[in-house]
Give the backbone structure.
Amino acid sequence: MDIDQLIDEIIAREGGYSNHPADRGGPTRWGITQSTARQHGYTGDMRSFPREQAEAIYRRVYWIEPGFDRVADHAPRVAAELFDTGVNMGPAVAARFLQRVLNALNRNGSDYPDIAVDGQIGPLTLAALAGFADTRGAEGEAVLLKALEALQGEYYISLAERRPANEAFLYGWLANRIGSP
């Protein structure tokens, strides 16, 4: 799946305009919050926020800048998962999930060295991912996805436990985000 398809799926899942009272993001369109739109130069009413601007933000902020495009060179399904998680939780959270899982799966550093869990996809994270892929092969990507989704699910439950208003979203997060894209 390429980034255009991933963006289409995110926009379809996020829907059009919303302003749910329990959502701290406030007015949102195409899954882009008003705050994010403003950071990228949009000054109008969120009900009119253009899809093309949302697509550009998704591509730049949630795919290229965090380095998920480079992850796709090694593990396309993992990159798609990181993109989806990054859209919902922030790219640094998604990158930290990957780094934690890679560290936990390196068999005490015998497959590849531990890496910093800093939320940045750089050369060391990419080298660890390549080391994981070399050691575990195609089956490894499926295991890596399961581990990422386990962390994602735990994060959602934790959000609902810390802020009861988030319970309004928990079922949808678990139903629509775990196992997606």
